[in-house]
Amino acid sequence: MWELYDALIEQIPDDITAAGIIVGNEITYVESSTGGAGIAPYRQYLERAPTITGNKIGMPLKELAECVKSWNFAEASIGNAAINAWYNHPDTAKRAGIDVPDRKRVQERLNDPFINSQNLVKGKMVCVVGHFPFIEELFAPVCDLRIVEWVPIEGDYPYSACEYLLPECDYAYLTCASIGDKSLPRLLELSENAKKVTLVGPATPLAAPLFDFGVDDLSGLVITDNALASRIISGAHSQRIYSAGQKVHYLKE
What we know:
This protein is α/β, with parallel strands linked by helices. It folds into two domains: about 5-95, Enolase-like, domain 1, CATH 3.30.390; about 100-225 and about 240-250, Rossmann fold. The chain has nine helices and ten strands. It has helices spanning about 5-10, 60-65, 75-85, 90-95, 135-140, 160-165, 175-180, 185-190, 225-235, and strands spanning about 20-25, 25-30, 35-40, 125-130, 145-150, 155-160, 170-175, 195-200, 215-225, 245-250. The strands form two sheets. A seven-stranded mixed β-sheet has the order 6-5-4-7-8-9-10. It has a three-stranded antiparallel β-sheet with strand order 1-2-3. The radius of gyration is 17 Å and the shape is globular.
């Protein structure tokens, strides 16, 4: 059951350590000793006691990444963020062939998965797991849109509807929050008949191993301003986390 998570953790080098950890309000930040930074959300849910105690600063990043398997979702977000601190480091992303352009010359909208796939999904059945900003305005006019949410608002389907909606959809967009809550492996199984499956959100690992589990497009964030990102997560700055980096996508070859 842990194959997807083990595949992500396995490629993290053994000699990198955790240099900083911030558990903010619903989002966690981890910075590595090589300057990589990653974030991850966590569900506000009844938590079990943490299984790892003590100071995690200086812990091998690979060991810290094992926290992603925790059933304490805040603790799991530490592991998810540690994974991203490796894969979403600008240098790691560039070595994987991901275009991490100068923010000054690329508008964020060009790498937004919902904006750049409006023509692709036209007239198709689309299931979006996660109520992303502006999703109704972008998709509802052009496709048969179904939105699934952990805490649904009016018009959304509850999370259990994934079992019925994803097998019928032409295109699936899955929230990166599904990594920490452990629903991602099942969501990918349910989406296996979709023409394209996109994992979406700033905590999406830009990790090629995910392509082996049914993902076709990784839409994530490369943090390029660690100081700003840490201030945003700690609540000291009111900007969106995207202000601290560059939105990118990584397509399966």
